[in-house]
Amino acid sequence: MFRAVLTAAFLAGALIAVPVTPSAAAPAAEVTGSTFTPRSPVRVLDTRTAGPVGAGGTVAIDLASHVPATATAVVLNVTGVAPTASTFVTVYPGGAARPTASSLNLDVGEVRANQVTVALGADRTVRLYNNSGRINLVADLAGHYGTESGALFTGLPPNRVLDTRDDHPLSSGGVRVLDLSRVVPESATAVTFNLTATLPTASTFVTAWPTGARRPTASNLNVEIGETRPNLVTAAIGADRTVSLYNNYGNVHLLADLTGFHTPDYGARFVPRAPQRVLDTRAGIGLTGPLASGGLPHPLALGEAVPVNATGVVLNLTGVGASTSTYVTAWGEGTVQPYQSSTLNVVPGKAVPNAATVVFGQYRGLYLYNHRGTVHLIADLSGMFVVSPEDCAPGCVRAWGSNDTRKLGTGQTVGSSPAPTPVAGLSGVRQVVGGGSGGASYAVLDDGTVRAWGGNEAGQLGNGWSARNGVSAVPVPVVGLTDVTAVSTNGHTTYALRADGTVWGWGQGPFGTGDHEVSNVPMPLPHLTGVTGIAVGHASTYALRPDGTVWAWGVNHHGALGTGSADDNGVLAPVRVQALSDVASIGAGSYNGYAVTSDGTAWAWGLNVHGQLGNGDPCDPFTNCESRVPVRVTGLSDAAQVVAGGDYTAYALRSDGSVAAWGYAYNGALGNGVACEGTCVSRIPVDVAGLTGVVSIASFGWGAYALRGDGTVWAWGDNTYESIGNHSAPFALAPVQVQGVDDVTVIGSGVSAGYAVS
């Protein structure tokens, strides 16, 4: 059972006066960053051996013996022990001016920890400042960022990966192994998660370390009897992608929400910065508070604080002035609210901090949710993760249109882009395809390998992991595939055709094996050999064999399998599409299949509500408006290729280089230059206006693209998500040229997005 943590205890204490003056804004144009090298935690400071830090005092940590000269920042777990007065601690680079920010807030006598990511100062030092009274400080080093070769970061919306309340608590001296093998790739070197302790029967500490290594003399989370307390943890990953958690005293329940992982082969780099106050609801910075409970979440825009190529941020979030015990959740704008997760647990009378790593969705901002009562929130930005822009190499991909679930692959945090922008790190591409809303996109490289980017909730990336609402803003390798000649996808289920005629599938399934499995790595389809073409619809898939027959599997809604069966439930193993032979190429719409035979005739089957069959049949409202067997598309005798635009419109490339369209005409989807009402359809093919010399076509849902022999790309249809790559109008009734791409050799499309290889 998934649920957020709300402490039941009412703990009195003095309110810490967190400074309200915002720090000067740093430039929001960072384009490069550092990679991460994790380590098993090592203690680098413990003032209990030399004496506490006094009021207004500082202590330096010399990290020269622990990190290389190329290091730019470190990840520390900083613990304050038994302060004699309510105080706050600030961690900052050695040699720099102390910022107006706090890293750790404590009441008299308590022990509290907080993870701090801080830029290194002169001679690889950091300083810790204590505001009031005397306090002992302890710091454990979990890793460093640097310019040397290291690991990149992929952020995730909070994913609950542990809740011992569903099982049993950790006992005194007990260890729980956290298995992350389903939610991070095999190449992962470290993970970041929010660790929460609740219902401890004694004051205790919890240590996280890589499984298989010796448990270090370090702690990540300190919690007092009866409290609920979180702390962000960045930990090296151990054997079999596991992390061990140790409890020192009593019994305690633990919860863990995964917020990202580091891996050397893809992701974003970290850019540290001096802490910048981006939120203080007491002073009206960012939002005006206090924040009320429940209801709609509170948006915090960060567009002026971070650049467009930022994929996420590191914050120190502090809750003060709570009217009752509550929890606060932070998540990226453009991602789904993680109802079962929490970021910060706050009680009345205390200032409670916790670090947070927040990944963005399509927009540079985050949402904050307060569960009960009212509370003031303060947030200091201490760094960001960025994807560095790259120049296009030969065979690179440029993308434009909707960036839903990061389907553009550019690393830019935008809702959509009208300007074709390079997909990060791709070159030598010979095919590119996109999928449906919430899905992933793919590129086949000249070496026969495949890259994927975008949504990964069902393992669509094929990289060996999946996560709730998980995405990758940049391409990742699809594991275990070589000699691939083509890929087809609906964004959630994907198939790769290899040179030997075998088909491999991954994602949501089914995969033609007789089971409806989900797989985050490619798996072979046992019943298919000698395949020459593959096409994927919404829930049905088609394979072309060398003998010119077409085979289908999946759901049979509206007769999408083309077998003549009246059973909508469909099949899991391939069955032959009825009455088709001598087929040269195939295509798929959401609920339709298409085939072109060697004599240039086109065939269609499935849904016909908007004329998708192209055979002129009307849609009687008292019938199912469908054909469960292939029917001939009217008037096409020289077709070379048929593609479908989502649910409603289909397109054919003729052998003379012209293009025909049929189906729904919404916002110019037919491209014939005719404006009509929203219900307008054409049940037979019409000519797309003004196109000649076309060598390839692709469709994006409410429109299509055409590649001409001169290397230009043309688009028509709906432009709500800037899909036509041209600022001309909200839609285009006839083809307009996509701006910013030339010498194009290959085009591709997803729902509301386009791709061009040059």
From the coordinates shown, what is the CATH architecture of the domain at 1-12 and 268-387? Sandwich
Strand order of the largest sheet: 1-8-3-6
Give the percentage of residues in beta strands. over 45%
Q: Calculate the terminal CA-CA distance, rounded to whole Å.
A: 49 Å
Largest sheet: 4 strands, antiparallel
- What oligomerization state is this entry in? single chain
> What is the CATH topology of the domain at 1-12 and 268-387?
Jelly Rolls
Instruction: Please tell me the overall pLDDT.
Output: 92
Shape: elongated
Number of helices: 0
Tell me the radius of gyration. 29 Å
**Uncertain segments:** 1-31
Q: Would you state the CATH class of the domain at 1-12 and 268-387?
A: Mainly Beta
Give the tally of β-strands. 52
Class computed from helices, strands and strand pairing: mainly beta
Query: Which bin fits the share of residues in helices?
Result: under 10%
Organism: Actinophytocola algeriensis
InterPro entries: Ran_GTPase-activating, RCC1-like_dom, RCC1/BLIP-II, Reg_chr_condens
Domain RCC1-like: 397-751
Keywords: Guanine-nucleotide releasing factor, Repeat, Signal
